[in-house]
Specification:
heterotrimer; A alpha/beta (208); B mainly alpha (569); C alpha/beta (395); B: mainly alpha; MetI-like fold; 2 domains; two-stranded antiparallel sheet; 2 strands; 1% strand; C: 395 residues; D-Maltodextrin-Binding Protein, domain 2; 6-stranded mixed β-sheet; MetI-like (chain B); membrane (chain B)
Chain lengths: 208, 569, 395
């Protein structure tokens, strides 16, 4: 849930958009649309705890009744799916997933099994030892989603997750992502400038 | 997100820098200044007086020394900059240029002293070039009486400085260019009808210069105060100011320490004034340049200039390579008399005989280099990480502090610093030497590491944070491994800087700490070029091995990680 | 000798080690590492010092750490820095290879420990009578503050393949240089060897060389040096690089002789050239000789700074260097080739035999070829010569 969030560039007189309040129900995908430059990505950065230097923000981010606005990013338990996947180049596909896998899964065997299962779900069985740089765009996006979900986030942000994919792949991946996040029963917030994304998400659409 | 730990971390580093680097320099300057104004009770000089200054200005050759210093410093820096930018402009688009630039690492790694000794042998009237051409081409059976080294105008010294500075500038320029949209601007400029070279001068150059201004000042300061290379290649009667100061400090007549201290202060003023002058010239040039750009002239083609710069740099690098080769050949020669192109008899005696000597020297060089580099690397990572954690802006004033040791001439504060260390009871040991080396290694490690560090894609860090990784895990599991290559490159540069230190080792080690560089410079005042060759080869080899490791280790560790193979270096 | 005692009182330097006998000194020295600050530009000397360290280790449990200097004054500066920092003990310099101006300057500033020479058992092999070369350093009485270790004598070295008949006087040298411009030079006058060359010329050319034994006055200096400068003005344009620049020291000059850039080198060691041939550093055709009228000779000393951390060890080293067996080894052309400082009259038969058995070399000058030894002028002459030269010939 967002409460009257407002973000302003430090050198700009006007806020990027008028104060925004919105609540996202668990298991649903709320889509934010708007022209480029309006501050969609900055809003995501604010919610996730990554607001860069040079911006001032007011308002609160409330997650399951917890006000997380002052918490550092790693303590908020808000997962993000970036448009370029951001797989760590120094780790194998499996290790990328293990990096995300929640710490309460203990024991080497259990962790390996969890990673293998996630790869199966992503339709990439046996990819654990692969170099992420050798994956196709769609494969990368799926690994990134699985990595995010393995961390057991309480909410999920999707920052134009399909923008870099070609149209055919986009359709397939939308289904993959939305099926998985609905299963989790967590609130999902997506920014996009593609109307088809919003339609596929099937939730409320907020225009900035 | 406002956790104060970043600020705290940076405060800690700042404290270490201020207490460990800046304060000692100021204290050293203070001691030097006291002696410069006649206060050195140890030799019975008491109280305030201007007498040391009067004696300084009366010393024979003082004026010539000063002029020589300014001439060699400015000429070498300006020429090196023009050549490096020219070569970058000429070659930037060519395939393999960036890889080729890596080949310059050996020149960067070779300490000034070793390179100077090799170069002196190469270009001397009795040197290798003359031997290769004699007597069949020149008709010389005996070397001619030509001033090709130690010439009164300091041309050989300028040449030596160029061989070292052009590669340094090239690497700095390459790093800076990677932050600029060079290709787009080139295309845009050429589409508007400007020639390739003119776009470089009018469009790329003005964007590039602010990014490399600090390294330019560092090189200028260095060239204005160089000692070891000037002893070997520069004129000797009188020498450049920094050499004269060193000689006066070490003269048999102990009261010369007073005018020497005054001259050491003057040396700082020369550097400060030199940088000021350069800055003023920058301004004037920028103003003229803007007028020129507004006129919109598509201008003459700059291509011949670029070709000339390319040829000159190639020539310089060939000289550098020849110098290193000459040292290697000498180290395995027995007799090599003029005008033979190669030694008439060979021997490994120089390596065998001095083995005990160079063994210890290699050992202490490595210990000091590794300790200093580790210290500098930890400080640099802490500094940059502090910046990241608190989203702190780049603190320019604090960075200026870091670079202070590179801008203040060593000779101005080392004698005083030695006295300060002795007073604190820590003089004359390897610890003092490591500390003094760290003064000069830390800034170079910062220069090498900060750009790749700041260029790291923040998405990785955000992704890690979104996955619940705290700051410590983000640092050790994500940042450091991804940045392994620039980290090791910075370490190799730091190691090379440590290996090359001459005056700090000499003053702080009280002569007890013998490194390859102090031994090589001492031996270069001796008659056995073969033994000098052994030391100089080792002196060049150690940093070179460090560079190889910096290239090789990440290549092996990340051999299955295509995403890192092009990594910033 | 009352003077040393006075000096001790004046400088307020206690010398506890001297109170006991030599055995106490040797006992205290055991386990010490002596930091010997000595010019490191000569590999033979470096090797000799390394050998001495091994021998001392076996005999006395004393180790030498050779601090290699490019100039002796470095060590002097170091001791001054320590005094400036108030470090009156535990100094970093234990022993210095020193003489002439450096010695005078350290002695005048109270930077030396001593007197200690008379406590060394091997001092009995020295000629300690007043005015003997072993107790006078550049006309300055050493008063026990230095111990001799090697003999130095000025010689010129020529390549006999290029210079068949060498000039044997300064006047003849000028004629030769005029006939062969650019083929002769001397080390920079800031360097010991360079100023020694000027002193050698001064002794030959001065109207009355006896004034050189006393401290130089303005009047005496200008009278004595006038012919020298006339001679030098004529010589300089015919020097290598027309006398605009000079080699840093005699080692660089020797290298230039080897490279064929010049035809002469000079040394303060009659055996230097022979040893260099032995090591492949000079062609086999080089020969050393001294000017007809004789050449400047002096003895190199070792001294102990007032704040040395290992005074006992330093004295054991100084004593070791005076051992007849060590001196004979130093004189061996294959080792160091440095002439003995001992008084032959005081040696026993075994020691004499050791000296007689030493090998010979064609590049080694005979005693006749070396001619008489001339005493060093008072140090003030050297300082003034260097200053005046710099004023006249620095552009």
């Amino acid at each position: 849930m967002l409460k009257s969030v407002s973000i302003q560039a430090e050198n700009g007189a006007e806020p990027l958009f008028s104060p925004l309040s919105l609540a996202v129900a668990p298991g649903s995908v709320t889509t934010i649309v708007g022209p480029s430059g309006i501050g969609k990505s900055t809003l995501m950065e604010f919610i996730g705890g990554h607001l860069p230097r040079g911006f001032r923000a007011s308002g609160d981010v409330i997650l399951d009744g917890r006000n997380v606005t002052r918490l550092p990013a790693e303590a908020r338990r808000i997962g993000i799916l970036f448009q370029d996947a951001a797989l760590f180049p120094h780790l194998s596909v499996g290790d990328n997933l293990a990096f995300g896998l929640a710490a309460h899964v203990r024991g080497r065997a259990a962790r390996t099994a969890a990673v293998a299962m996630a790869l199966d779900q992503a339709g990439l069985p046996g990819f654990a030892a692969r170099d992420p740089a050798t994956l196709s765009g769609g494969q990368r996006a799926r690994v990134a989603l699985m990595r995010t979900l393995l961390a057991e986030p309480c909410a999920l942000l999707l920052d134009e997750p399909f923008a870099k994919l070609d149209p055919a792949l986009r359709e397939e991946l939308r289904r993959f992502v939305f099926d998985h996040v609905r299963d989790r029963d967590i609130p999902v917030l997506m920014v996009t400038h593609d109307a088809a994304d919003a339609e596929a998400a099937g939730g409320p659409v907020v225009s900035l | 997100m406002t956790a104060p730990e970043g600020r705290l971390l940076r405060l800690l580093v700042l404290g270490a820098v201020a207490g460990g680097l800046v304060l000692p320099i100021l204290a050293g300057l203070w001691e030097t200044a006291r002696a410069a104004f006649g206060h050195l009770p140890a030799i019975g000089a008491d109280g305030l007086s201007l007498d040391p200054w009067r004696r300084l200005f009366d010393l024979p050759g003082f004026g010539t020394s000063l002029t020589l210093t300014l001439w060699t410093g400015f000429a070498s820096t300006a020429l090196a900059l023009v050549l490096a930018v020219g070569l970058a402009a000429a070659m930037y688009d060519r395939a393999g240029f960036r890889g080729g630039a890596r080949l310059l690492a050996p020149f960067l790694a070779t300490p000034h002293a070793a390179l100077a000794i090799g170069l002196a042998f190469l270009i001397a009237p009795s040197g290798w070039i003359s031997r290769l051409l004699s007597p069949w081409a020149t008709g010389w059976d005996l070397p001619p009486d030509l001033a090709t080294v130690n010439d009164p105008a300091g041309l050989a010294l300028i040449l030596g400085l160029l061989v070292k500075e052009v590669p340094f500038f090239l690497l700095v320029i390459l790093a800076a260019l990677s932050q600029l949209p060079v290709r787009r601007h080139l295309e845009a400029g050429r589409a508007l009808g400007y020639g390739h070279g003119v776009v470089w001068i009018k469009v790329i150059g003005p964007q590039l210069y602010p990014l490399i201004r600090l390294p330019v000042y560092v090189v200028l300061s260095f060239a204005l105060s160089i000692v070891d290379m000037a002893i070997v290649l520069g004129p000797s009667n009188p020498p450049v100011l920094a050499v004269a100061v060193t000689r006066w400090f070490l003269a048999a007549e102990t009261t010369l320490i007073l005018p020497a201290s005054a001259a050491a202060l003057l040396q700082s003023a020369v550097v400060a004034g030199g940088i000021g002058l350069w800055w003023a010239a920058e301004r004037a040039l920028a103003r003229i340049g803007r007028v020129w750009i507004r006129r919109g002239g598509r201008g003459v083609s700059a291509e011949p200039g670029l070709v000339a710069a390319g040829a000159a740099v190639t020539g310089l690098m060939a000289l550098g390579a020849g110098a290193l080769m000459a040292l290697a050949v000498w180290s395995v020669a027995w007799r090599w008399s003029y005008p033979r192109a190669l030694p008439e008899s060979w021997s490994l005696a120089a390596w065998g005989r001095s083995a005990a000597g160079w063994g210890t020297a290699v050992e202490s060089t490595v210990i000091i280099g590794v300790a200093t580099t580790a210290l500098a690397l930890i400080l640099a990572v802490a500094w940059l990480e502090g910046e990241d954690r608190d989203h702190l802006p780049r603190a320019t004033w604090a960075e200026a502090l870091i670079y202070l040791p590179l801008l203040v001439p060593q000779i101005a504060f080392l004698y005083g610093l030695h006295v300060v260390f002795l007073k604190a009871g820590i003089g004359g040991g390897i610890g003092a030497v490591i500390w003094a080396h760290a003064l000069f290694v830390f800034p170079y490690v910062m220069i090498a590491l900060s750009d790749p560090w700041r260029a790291l894609d923040p998405a990785y860090i955000r992704a890690a944070a979104a996955l619940g990784a705290g700051p410590v895990r983000r640092l050790f599991a994500v940042k450091l491994p991804i940045l392994l290559r620039p980290l090791l490159t910075a370490a190799a540069i730091g190691f090379a800087v440590s290996v090359a230190q001459y005056l700090p080792t000499l003053f702080m080690g009280a002569g007890r700490v013998a490194t390859l560089t102090t031994e090589a410079v001492t031996l270069s005042s001796g008659s056995d070029r073969r033994v000098t060759g052994v030391y100089a080869v080792l002196q060049a080899a150690l940093p070179f091995l460090a560079y190889l490791a910096a290239l090789g280790v990440p290549a092996i560790l990340h051999r299955h990680r295509a995403g890192l193979s092009g990594g910033a270096a | 000798m009352r003077l040393p005692l006075l000096a001790t009182l004046a400088f307020g330097l206690a010398a506890p080690a001297l109170a006991g006998g030599w055995d106490d000194t040797v006992a205290a020295a055991r386990g010490q590492t002596v930091y010997w600050n000595a010019w490191g530009g000569d590999e033979r000397t470096n090797d000799f010092i390394a050998w001495a360290s091994g021998a001392l280790q076996t005999q006395y449990g004393v180790t030498i750490n050779h601090v290699k200097l490019s100039d002796t004054a470095e060590a002097v500066t170091r001791v001054i820095a320590e005094k400036a920092a108030g470090q009156a003990e535990d100094g970093s310099v234990d022993l210095i290879w020193i003489n002439g101006a450096n010695f005078l300057s350290m002695k005048e500033q109270g930077l030396l420990h001593g007197p200690f020479l008379q406590n060394l058992p091997n001092a009995r092999y020295l000629d300690l009578s007043e005015g003997s070369a072993a107790v006078v350093d550049f006309t300055i009485p050493t008063e026990g503050y230095e111990s001799p270790w090697r003999l130095a004598k000025f010689v010129l070295t020529r390549d006999s393949a290029r210079v068949a008949e060498p000039p044997r006087s300064m006047a003849a040298l000028l004629d030769w240089a005029k006939a062969n411009p650019g083929r002769f030079t001397h080390p920079a006058v800031t360097n010991f060897m360079g100023s020694t060359f000027l002193k050698q010329a001064l002794i030959e050319l001065a109207p009355d060389p006896s004034v050189l034994q006393a401290e130089a006055t303005d009047e005496a200096f200008s009278a004595a040096t006038e012919p020298l400068w006339t001679w030098y003005d004529a010589l300089r344009p015919n020097l290598w690089r027309e006398g605009v620049t000079f080699p840093e020291n005699e080692s660089v000059l020797q290298q230039m002789l080897n490279d064929g850039e010049v035809d002469f080198a000079m040394a303060f060691d009659p055996a230097a050239a022979a040893a260099a041939v032995e090591r492949g550093l000079l062609p086999e055709t080089v020969r050393s000789y001294a000017p007809e009228a004789g050449s400047i000779g002096n003895i190199s000393f070792v001294a102990i700074p007032f704040n040395a951390a290992h005074k006992e060890g330093a004295m054991v080293v100084a004593n070791f260097l005076l051992d007849p067996a060590v001196q004979a080894r130093a004189q061996d052309i294959t080792v160091l080739g440095s002439y003995s400082v001992l008084d032959p009259a005081k040696l026993d038969a075994a020691a004499k035999a050791a000296f007689d058995a030493l090998p010979d070399s064609p590049a080694l000058p005979s005693n006749e070829a070396l001619g008489p030894t001339l005493g060093e002028p008072h140090p003030s002459w050297m300082t003034r010569l260097a200053e005046d030269w710099a004023r006249r010939y620095t552009e």
